[in-house]
Design a protein that fits this description.
By secondary structure, this protein is mainly beta. The chain has helices at about 1-10, 25-30; strands spanning about 30-40, 40-55, 55-65, 70-80, 85-90, 95-100, 105, 115-120, 135-140, 145, 160, 165-170, 175, 185-190, 205-210, 215-220, 245, 245-250, 255-270, 270-285, 285-295, 305, 315-320. The protein is globular and about 70 Å long.
Length: about 325
């Protein structure tokens, strides 16, 4: 059954396609959904096409099979003239592929046809409005609740507005002025820059620091693997997201707005935080940490959004203190 599934996945083999001009890498990169059809029926699958720089691509294909297992195939692609083609092998089946007009179509092996279409997924909490009692840290216009380091000459940095109502993370990062010592909910929207020639920690690196000083990593994990806890949504350097399969499956492609929705729970004794906080984190609506215990003790602290030298964008950040 495993081999049959891989053969079905390998149906990403197609005839070449001609273009008036080669498509932009940003247009080819993305999530594709569809199915391969052969004599045995229809085999649904998903593909992630990742721009790998200089007109090259990586393609990661996943096909659900029996008992919750997944058949996986990794392909490579490149731009030649005005066309994007892919090559690879699954099992004993070699195949070739081509992209055209937002779709991947073709055949592989005998009597097998496939069509995958590029889809744009959005977080269900994108644009979430702050509830009553929430503290708005960033709305793209008012910066009274956050601060950032001054320039070397002692002058204030100028906030850099970006398309979509956000700002580019300033040099040295930005920090909430208020301190929080209890349980809360946090909503953050961020956008990873397009950096196809960079890998791992050099691509879209930032981070969201919780009041106890621990970091939820921000990174381009759409197709680039990292060390444990180093990818997008990871509890930095020690815990991968639960929705993880080589890279964070909750991640969207660069240049799309993404969301973190964090539930941060703190126990108190005599009115003071005690023990280790626990977090439940949703990345683009997908639960990636479920009541996970953090390593550092609870304490009063602020929120910090890290500058790692990459032009990461943030917007619509708010905090709702909870009574527990």
């Amino acid at each position: 059954m495993q081999r049959l599934a891989l053969c079905a996945v390998a149906c990403l083999g197609f005839a070449g396609a001609a273009f008036a001009a080669a498509p932009q890498e940003q247009d080819v990169q993305g999530i594709y959904e569809g199915a391969c059809k052969d004599a045995k029926g229809e085999h649904k699958m998903e593909a992630r096409v990742i721009a790998w720089g200089k007109g090259t691509y990586k393609v990661f294909v996943r096909q659900p099979i029996e008992e919750g297992k997944v058949a996986k195939v990794e392909l490579s692609g490149k731009t030649e003239g005005d066309a994007v083609s892919f090559e690879g092998k699954a099992g004993d089946v070699e195949w070739s592929a081509a992209y055209a007009d937002g779709a991947i179509k073709g055949t592989c092996g005998e009597g097998c046809k496939l069509e995958l279409k590029r889809v744009v997924r959005e977080s269900p909490t994108l644009g979430a409005k702050p509830p009553e009692g929430a503290i708005i840290l960033l709305d793209g216009k008012n910066f009274n609740e956050v601060t950032c380091p001054k320039n070397k000459d002692g002058t204030d940095q100028e906030w850099k507005p970006v398309e979509g109502g956000g700002i580019q993370v300033p040099k040295g990062g930005m920090t909430a002025k208020r301190q929080f010592d209890g349980s809360l909910k946090l909503h953050v929207e961020f956008k990873i820059p397009y950096m196809p020639n960079e890998r791992d920690q050099c691509s879209g690196n930032s981070g969201e620091y919780l009041p106890n000083g621990e970091e939820i990593q921000v990174l381009d994990s759409f197709g680039s693997p990292s060390y444990p806890g180093g990818g997008c949504g990871g509890l930095y350097a020690y815990k991968n997201p639960d929705a993880f399969d080589q890279f964070s499956l909750a991640s969207l492609p660069p240049l799309q707005w993404q969301t973190y929705d964090v539930e941060y729970h703190v126990q108190k004794q005599d009115g003071k935080p005690t023990g280790k906080p626990r977090v439940t984190v949703y990345h683009n609506g997908i639960k990636i940490h479920d009541n996970a215990e953090l390593r550092k003790d609870a304490r009063a602290g602020g929120f910090h959004f890290q500058d790692h030298g990459n032009p990461v964008h943030y917007r619509n950040i708010w905090v709702l203190p909870l009574k527990e």
